[in-house]
From TrEMBL:
This is Pirin family protein. Residues 207-308 form the Pirin C-terminal domain. CDD domains: cupin_pirin_C. It comes from Negadavirga shengliensis. Belongs to the pirin family. Residues 62-139 form the Pirin N-terminal domain. Coiled coil: none annotated. Pfam families: Pirin (PF02678), Pirin_C (PF05726).
Amino acid sequence: MKTLIKTIRPLGFHWQTQDPFLFCAYHHDIFPKGNGDMGPDASLSGRTIGQDFVQKDGWRMYHGSKVPGFPAHPHKGFETVTLVERGLVDHSDSLGAAGRFGNGDVQWMTAGGGVMHSEMFPLLKDDEKNELLLFQIWLNLPKAKKNVPAHFKMMWNEDIPLVEEKDENGRITRIKIISGSLGKKHSPAPAPDSYAADPDHEVAIWLIHMEPGSKFTLPAVSGETNRSLFFYKGGTIAIEDQIIDAGHSLDLKPGAPFTYTNGDTPSALLFLQGKPLNEPVVQHGPFVMNSNQEIQEAVYQYQRTQFGGWPWPSTEHTHPKEKGRFAVHADGREEIK
């Protein structure tokens, strides 16, 4: 049998992806109960505050000093797709936009010409532990759209399609479609200038949950489309004549349908697919352009403009504890869930 697997590699904190994706960051923290001010009710001694990426006691503060998360930082030239399956994120940005989202919601942010934002993880539960399960996928932008206006789109959990597929034995695979389509189910539209906005680019972002023993087939795609599976939770899956343990990713060859079977425990996988940009990629931290000169220009632009400045009282801005899920956009439009 001709194998459809190109590469198998172990997963780490940052998952290696294929063009048009840049990488995927995976965060899973079991935070302690909150302290009433949305921080952890626990000592922070022994942690490198401001740079805490060691999962001590099962959780990290990241760059936060009181509340875990990522204080104000810039992005330019690409997109972030933030899937928050459990827990919450408080977003604030240099355009004056803000939001609180999570527990199944997705934020699709096209940074384009530049934006500063913060992503803090408020711990709202003061009587029990606070779990965070988050994927942030960096999707590149083509040269022609590197400088489009920054914009974010909310995909609320209630609006994201969930497909249930039964195999010949009646066992179920559930697919959450953040981008792309499966059968007659189509994802919500991404941000308007997104690379995924053109269906010809075949961008797909799916979360796949499989019952024990279930079988699932990824549909065929065009010959130039890249696709990858990230097996982040479970026991094993069987692909062709291989057994793959959880904690691995697989880069798949394009073209034919791809079938695999879950082992004897529930499994969870992330699936990424898209036609490659086939453009030069030069990355300098949160700036992704096509040349070193463009990177220098991006850094200068940020130093000169701060991408609009920071309108919030703190670089670690959080929203009032009592607020629910919401979004306020730069044009003043509000969404409340």
